[in-house]
Automatic annotation (TrEMBL):
Protein's organism: Paracoccus aestuariivivens
This protein's name: 2-polyprenylphenol 6-hydroxylase
Pathway it works in: Cofactor biosynthesis; ubiquinone biosynthesis [regulation]
Family: Belongs to the protein kinase superfamily. ADCK protein kinase family.
Lineage: superkingdom: Bacteria
Keyword rRNA processing found: no
Ranges where the ABC1 atypical kinase-like domain occurs: 97-341
Gene transcribed to yield this protein: ubiB
Transmembrane segments annotated in the record for this chain: 489-512
Length: 513
């Protein structure tokens, strides 16, 4: 499926951008130099007739993206949160991709609900509205349950959306392979792994049962968090293509004028969005990874309502600690600490110069501190940070892609509400609290206790393992050279010592209760 036939798909992508006028808009947004504009025009106009027409009523870029399909729409949603990168005009055009795409007919949605749940819509709901929001994957209907009268949101997958994503991702895989083949230097960025990661994320978003499970887990993790709400799923009214959950009443996060008119404290809301994301990522290691304005509302009392859990991120405890130390280093402007953490975690090859890397990080961080938010060009900072990663041979960490992407999106959301927000000052209390609880003496004692418990569980297996392995190791020692014999003996002795320690740990674990 990932063969050369995808060349046609990629050509048609470029042709669609040319035909709809989106190519010129993109080049203007990134302020492309004249020679790049000329090359794009020369290469694009002969194939323009091959591109999709799209909806002529839409602005050029949204016209092209919606014509190309759901995977392109998902990428456009990310860009819509970054007016500091793509410009306010383009960001405004792309904002419609969040929840204002053309819906599919209500009758079609009703048939999907009935097929999925095995009952007619009239039996399940006393009310079932026209679509109130439509995005790349699904659309939402406002409804009322027939059994208890509760108001709910019914999310229904778009027809044939799975096939569209498969086609797009197939082309992305081919493009990534071609990029690696043509430019070996790009392999450190692992484009094929990045696409595979994106594919796994999309697979989860196309099964609404997994989204219901994510919503349930996220609600449990955050039930004691102040200033936020999570709509709970209704399991017996959900299936693979249908998800029913509590109705979330509030103003859309993207309606800044409406929030201001309602008397909301915009700086407080902006800070809360950023701090909630950091709390969930650092404390729980399980976070909402699609926090654009279309998935956020503000309740009348100022609570942030988070919904649409199709894309969730998960990071292990070690990675969370590394991430927190990097953030704390930037917050305290301790660039050598940031550099050391990168080297210790293996993010930068060990043969590179740590001091030089620290100076490069200083050039990234210093423009942020002491500057007015409106003076900071995030596009320039991202461009320079990319240069740094290239110069020091840093490979893309696929386990951090969602975390990094969501941080960019959340920062964009916060800046759209409060352009003067200082992200470092807002992040500081959350990161400091995490480090205090997870990197101090108390955390070390907790880690030791866990290690003791693990050793205690495996202690009963060690005698049998040693009896089975020791004779074999001794036979190998007899036929090995002297140096190898010494190493084998050292290993055996180490295992014996480990067994003694494990047994001691078992007693200690039992004593600790």
């Amino acid at each position: 499926m990932r063969g050369p036939h995808n060349i046609w798909r990629l050509i048609r992508t470029g042709a669609t951008f040319e035909r709809t006028g989106a190519m010129r808009a993109v080049l203007d947004a990134v302020n492309a130099p004249a020679r790049v504009r000329l090359a794009a025009h020369v290469l694009g106009w002969p194939f323009a007739w091959l591109g999709y027409k799209g909806d002529a009523n839409l602005p050029p870029i949204t016209r092209a993206i919606t014509a190309l399909g759901p995977a392109y729409i998902k990428f456009g949603q990310i860009l819509s949160t970054r007016p500091d990168v793509v410009g306010p005009e383009l960001a405004e055009q792309l904002s419609m991709l969040q929840d204002r795409l053309p819906p599919f007919p209500q009758e079609q949605a009703r048939r999907i609900v009935e097929d999925a749940l095995g009952k007619s819509v009239e039996v399940l709901f006393t009310e079932f509205s026209e679509p109130v929001a439509a995005a790349s994957i699904a659309q939402v209907h406002r409804a009322r349950r027939a059994d208890n009268g509760r108001e709910v949101a019914v999310k229904v997958l778009r027809p044939s959306v799975e096939a569209g994503f498969r086609r797009d991702i197939d082309a992305f895989h081919f493009a990534a392979s071609m990029i690696e083949f043509i430019s070996p230097a790009t392999r450190r960025l692992r484009p094929r792994d990045v696409v595979s990661h994106f594919e796994s994320v999309v697979d989860g978003e196309l099964d609404l049962r997994r989204e219901a499970a994510a919503a349930s887990e996220f609600a449990e993790n955050t039930r004691d968090d102040d200033g936020m709400r999570v709509p709970h799923p209704h399991w017996h009214l959900s299936a693979r293509r249908v998800l029913t959950s509590d109705w979330a009443e509030g103003l859309p996060m993207g309606d800044v004028a409406g929030l201001k008119a309602a008397g909301q404290d915009l700086p407080a809301v902006a800070s809360r969005v950023l701090q909630l994301f950091l709390q969930h990522a650092l404390r729980d290691g399980f976070f909402h990874a699609d926090m654009h304005q279309g998935n956020l509302k503000v309740a009348a009392n100022g609570d942030v309502i988070i919904y649409d859990f199709g894309i969730m991120g998960e990071i292990d405890e070690y990675t969370r600690r590394v991430y927190a130390e990097i953030l704390m280093g930037f917050i305290r402007r301790d660039y050598m600490r940031v550099a050391r953490v990168h080297f210790e975690a293996g993010y930068v090859p060990a043969d590179r110069d740590m001091a030089e890397f620290a100076r490069a990080l200083r050039a990234v961080g210093e423009p942020i501190f002491g500057a007015d938010a409106s003076q900071i060009s995030m596009a320039n900072l991202l461009a320079y940070l990319f240069e740094v990663t290239e110069r020091f041979g840093m490979r893309t960490r696929t386990e951090l892609i969602l975390l990094q992407r969501t941080m960019v999106v959340v920062e964009g959301v916060s800046r759209s509400i409060d352009p003067q927000i200082n992200i470092w000052e807002v992040a500081r209390p959350v990161v400091e609290s995490y480090i205090r609880d997870n990197l101090g003496p108390k955390a070390a004692a907790r880690d030791l206790g866990r290690s003791v418990q693990v050793l205690a569980r495996f202690a009963p297996l060690l005698p049998e393992f040693l009896e089975r392995r020791m004779p074999q190791m001794l036979r190998e020692q007899e036929s090995a050279s002297d140096s190898r014999r010494e190493r084998r003996f050292g290993l055996a002795a180490g295992m014996a010592i480990g067994a003694v320690l494990a047994l001691g740990s078992a007693f200690l674990g039992a004593w600790l209760g």
